[in-house]
TrEMBL record:
Keywords: Membrane, Transmembrane, Transmembrane helix. It comes from the Bacteria. The chain crosses the membrane at residues 44-61, 68-89, 121-142, 154-176. The keyword Membrane applies. It comes from Chryseobacterium artocarpi. This is Uncharacterized protein.
Length: 196
């Protein structure tokens, strides 16, 4: 067997393992990817608007101690958000620069999308400490008719944190499913079609 035959055999093996994706299938994939990108852009601008609004509300809070606590809390939330949105921005760029010509490139894209699903849920769960801080600030600065006892403070804090955690988790799951999950499942179904 000469070198040319060996090269041809090698190239045939490689193309058998990584099937090409037709233009029609690439177009089917690009539609849900565009929807994902559009939703990512919209979410980014909503988050910016929310933080601008939060800082504006914070600027009118009184007394100064309350304003300071809320400003530090919102700034901390902003740092966490910037960290996670840098991960999402990387996916956003990868989606726009992806050449989906082979089965393996599509499989790699699915893995990136699923990894970002975990980032997304982690983003929502990472706000748990902020819920605790918010509740402590609320309990400290809201004027009550009668001073709250230690058991009442503990009960309000524990119940609100538990409810807040469940709300964060389920809202994050629903939000991801509604804005991203259905498109990811559509791409996964196209991947299964290619595999067959």
């Amino acid at each position: 067997m000469n070198i040319d035959e060996l090269k041809n055999t090698w190239n045939e093996d490689i193309t058998d393992k990584t099937p090409e994706i037709s233009i029609e299938q690439q177009n089917k994939i690009h539609l849900p990817l565009e929807k994902v990108r559009k939703n990512m852009r919209n979410e980014f601008w909503w988050i910016i608007g929310i933080f601008v609004f939060a800082f504006l509300v914070c600027s009118i809070c009184r007394p100064f101690k309350l304003q300071l606590y809320i400003t530090v809390l919102i700034a901390s939330m902003l740092i966490v958000t910037i960290f996670f949105f840098s991960k999402f921005f990387k996916l956003y760029n990868d989606i726009s620069n992806t050449e989906l010509k082979t089965y393996d490139s599509l499989k790699d894209l699915i893995n990136q999308l699923n990894l970002n699903k975990q980032y997304y849920l982690s983003y929502y769960i990472s706000f748990a400490p902020f819920i605790v801080c918010e509740m402590l600030i609320v309990l400290e600065f809201i004027p009550w008719r009668e001073p709250l006892g230690e058991m009442n403070v503990a009960l309000i804090l524990i119940v609100s944190v538990i409810i807040g955690l469940f709300l964060l988790f389920f809202c994050g799951k629903y939000w991801f499913h509604h804005y991203y999950g259905k498109y990811i499942r559509h791409i996964e179904s196209l991947l299964k079609e290619l595999k067959e």
